[in-house]
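Bumping with the actual sequence this time:
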Amino acid sequence: MKKLNASIITIGDELLIGQTIDTNSAFIAQEFNKAGIWVQRRVAVGDVYGDIWKALDDETAISEIVIVTGGLGPTADDITKPLLCKYFGGTLVENEQVLKHIIYLFEHIYQRKGPLLESNRKQAEVPDTCTVLMNERGTAPGMWFQKMVNGMERVIVSLPGVPFEMKGLIEKEVLPRLLKTFSTQVIIHQTLLTAGIGESMLAEKIKEFEEALPAHVKLAYLPHYGMVRLRLTSTGDNKKELEKEIEGLFGQLKELVKEWLVIDEDLTLPQAVAKLLKERKQTVGTAESCTGGYIAHLLSRDPGSSIVFKGSIVSYDNQVKMDLLGVNQNILDMAGAVSEETVKQMAKASLELLKTDYTVATSGIMGPDGGSEHKPVGLVWVAVASKNSVQAKKFNFRFDRTRNIEQTAISALDLLRKEILKA
């Protein structure tokens, strides 16, 4: 079976100047991949008529499916709808079902009084050449077009750029329709996470394994802040055969990297730590200075995190360290806030205050200012405490402030992971 390819076109000047981060493409690509649709290209264009038209020409020439997001609002710079009307040779008509939905939203959900603005009413206008996809979460409907290009059928779907609305349409309307329209290949991924080894060294360790992989199996390296994810991807028609094959190859890969293996699932380090704690029915809290609560954020952002994460004390100022965590004034005067002694006291005190099985404490100099000859920017102390022990480790990072914070958080979580596994 031929691979089913898709392209994603995102529209908006805000994407090109970096004012808005394109999360839509990532979501669409992930959902399509699960369904056996391969996203082969992502294109961002501004609110320029000719650029959008050219992007449609280019992507329909190479992909069976083209998803367009953005440019469907009620303002003058939202030009996608009239462009699509001309591109597919249609006429804008008012859709009664969409209009009723818009009126309902304004009267009952948004609680707005008075007549509907003309600009809002215009959102009920759609090209008569499209199939309307009802947007339950907003006023701009999705639009489904079909077109023959070089004797081959293409599906072009236009969706609102608001992520919440786009996601609803992808899940409820777009994917079910695509799977009825096309036959798809099977795409299988197996992912593991490593820490403590760089990408180049890791590649050298598994060079022979990678060279021996079948043509339909690909290995990807995904490095991020001191960790590397390895992903095996297999494509084909027979799901059972592919699953059996990838399972065997994945087992070989795990054996080759077992010294650095964090988890053999597609999970982040915070998720891997949370899984360990859940399995052991244990809890964790944080006492953070230089990371400012960022570790707490990483541990609490996933659903169900309250099972393992109990709370955080952000003791950024030394007075807070003394008042809330009981850090000794003499230690701060002699060793300083960024020291082994300080983070150990922070970790032990927070363990008692938060009543958890583990705590993580951090103190460091994130930059760009605040460093000295003896304590340069990037110096960090991390401690992990349990009822039986408290361990501290020093790190020296060399990055900018944002990355130093990220690196500290990841290093702290990996230290916590190792302490959990020791118990």
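The tokens above came from a reply further down the thread. The mean pLDDT is 95.
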